[in-house]
Amino acid sequence: MSTTMEALAPEPLDIDEGHTEVASVEGIAALHEADQSGSRALLCFASHDVIRRSRVGRPFRLSMEGGDLSLLNSGRAPLLANHEHHLDAILGVVEMAWIDASLGSAFAIARFAPTRRGLDAQAMVGAGVLNNCSMGFTMSADDGEDPASVQAIPWWRPYEITLCALPANWHGHVKAAAPKTLDRLAAEESARKAKAMRDAIAADRLRDAQDIGRAVAPDLAQRLGIEPGVAGAALEAAIGAHPGR
What superkingdom heads the lineage (predicted)? Predict the structure, then answer.
């Protein structure tokens, strides 16, 4: 648990809060076609295009390489209404998020809550009436010397995704892929994560088996009348040949 919490803990950086009036990024929301229940949405919530704020501040550009999606992938990041931070504003939960370098955009899958507001939002997204999304995030900014220049954001960490009635920036130019493309990307990312989990479990089992092998090797060597090193090597070879058992 401590390792997980340390991995999610923000770095000690001088950060600014991004929100709808100062530093939000608008995108596209659509129901996840591959989800037969219709309770999930695909969201394109950020891109590497220049964002020109409609109210205050310099235009900025997010570095896709610097995006830290650990909080969105924690299973605890909310899908909110208009960046509001109270229980009634929770429309769902972000299940997974990833960055596609070829599209220069960040995507997420969110599951709607079985509440009145969650179901209403789900229906509006499904009908194409509500398709604006944004994110709340912390960031480290490269201030630069020219206040009129585009501000580079080399590191950013979203902590929520929002469905919003009005985009703060009508010219965000988020390049959203077609829904079928998003479905493919989501399936590929889900398969990648599942494989990574299977590989991690297999590696843990192999380490446990090797530890047991090293522990019993001396006793086995004594019983068979062979050198402990020979017994240990034989056990490691046998364990390596059948790592899943």
Answer: Bacteria
